[in-house]
Each structure stands twice: as structure tokens, then as C-alpha cells.
Amino acid sequence: xxxxxxxxxxxxxxxxxxxxxxxxxxxxxxxxxxxxxxxxxxxxxxxxxxxxxxxxxxxxxxxxxxxxxxxxxxxxxxxxxxxxxxxxxxxxxxxxxxxxxxxxxxxxxxxxxxxxxxxxxxxxxxxxxxxxxxxxxxxxxxxxxxxxxxxxxxxxxxxxxxxxxxxxxxxxxxxxxxxxxxxxxxxxxxxxxxxxxxxxxxxxxxxxxxxxxxxxxxxxxxxxxxxxxxxxxxxxxxxxxxxxxxxxxxxxxxxxxxxxxxxxxxxxxxxxxxxxxxxxx
Length: 281
What we know:
Radius of gyration: 18 Å
Order of helices and strands: EEEEEHEHEHHEHEHEHEEHHH
Shape: globular
Structural class: alpha/beta
Largest sheet: 7 strands, mixed
CATH superfamily of the largest domain: Vaccinia Virus protein VP39
CATH architecture of the largest domain: 3-Layer(aba) Sandwich
CATH topology of the largest domain: Rossmann fold
CATH class of the largest domain: Alpha Beta
Strand order of the largest sheet: 8-7-6-9-10-12-11
Oligomer: single chain
Number of strands: 12
């Protein structure tokens, strides 16, 4: 086979390879190695420390599902916080909601935002909306400093290693609870149900101890390990399956629909078993 290939070692036993058309950008930021490559299968792709973060080919699935599910559950989301997500995809979806008056993006690495604006404009264009404020700081510290401020908090983080590990901790979820207003809703990406069962189980148990309602939902993301991804949700009141059907149907989306919203919470047996088991550590 001709041409250059990029390979991500997604687990110790699994790899994903893409034929590369061109390397568009590469640098070492103060926090990580950042690269933008153009692939035959998925188009332009953002890599951090050699791990696929997003691609033009499938990003809409992930970004729509992590955003519209919590925003449609909340009765009137006006003030939204996004932690991570410097590519701008979640912000792009958040500002589709006319009720949103302010969307705050807290991203620790300014170079992610700059690179996305230059090389991934289809994803990043929402960052220039007048309702968006970008803060280059640590998301954990930001949440720790605020109370009763946000209607919805969305954590679009990297994998739970290094500095991002704190975004998957019970102490952080307690801070999130305090930072949310009445009826507040929280969602975080929580990795693959095929390869991160213990992580998902622990997070769900933590959320059940902190939030009145804790739930898990799924979406297919082809470039992520195993091709199926989990999202953990904590709610101060609104039920995950109770939402304004007409409002959800009016959104301009490519994957998310009211029917998919509801179906995402109906877990296949192998995932439901994760939640039924007690923590093993």
C-alpha cells in the first residue's frame, strides 16, 4: 500500500490507522504535542499527543450528542460552561440554542483554539459568536471558584491521563454540583464501554452519590476506541428523557434528533451490566 499512514495505538491491543494526504501543522505547545493532518478516510484531523481528538468526517456525531442532550433536558439554558473542547465543536452546537445568552469556553491550551480556527474552520467558527467568552485557564480551578453560576456544564476533555485525570474525579463532580444553578445539568464524555468499564462504573457511582439523577447514554464515534462512546450525565432536577420534543426537532443537526435523544438512554445489556455491578476497587 502506497502513501504515509498515521496510526493511533488506542489500547495496548488495538490500533486505528488512516492514510495521510498531508501534515498541515505540528508543534509542541506548553502542554502537549499538537498536530493537524489531512486523511483520506476522515478528512482533516486534530491530534494531541498522538491521539485523535476530532475529525471533519465524524465530529458532528460527538459534538451534537454531548451538547444537545443536556441543553434540551434543561428547561431554559442561558449560561453554559464548556471545559476543554478548544476545537470549538461543542460551542458551535451550544450557540444553536436561542435561549443561550452566554457560553464560556475554558480551555487550558490557547494553541488548540488557534490551530482549530486556522485548520478546522467548519468546527471552530462558533468561537467568534458574540455570546462566547474564551478563558485560557484550568477548568478544574475555574469550577472550584464559582457557585450557583451555570445552567449547563459540559466537559469535553481529553482521555483521563495527566492533567485531565482530575476532570474524572469525585471532588471535581462535587465542585460541578455547586457551580450549577437550580435545575442544572452536567455532562462529560466518559470513554468507551468496551475498554473503560471500570472507569464508567466508578464515575456513575460517584455521580449517583452527588446528583439526584445520574444517567449514562451512548453514541457511535467511529474514530474513537471501539467506535461507541459513553457520556455521563448528572442532573439537579430535569429527567434525561423529559425534554421539549418540538424544540429539539427544530435544531439544525446532522445526527441528533429527538428520537435519537430518547434512544441513547436505552442501553444494550453489556453496558447496563456495567452499571448494575458494584465498584470492584
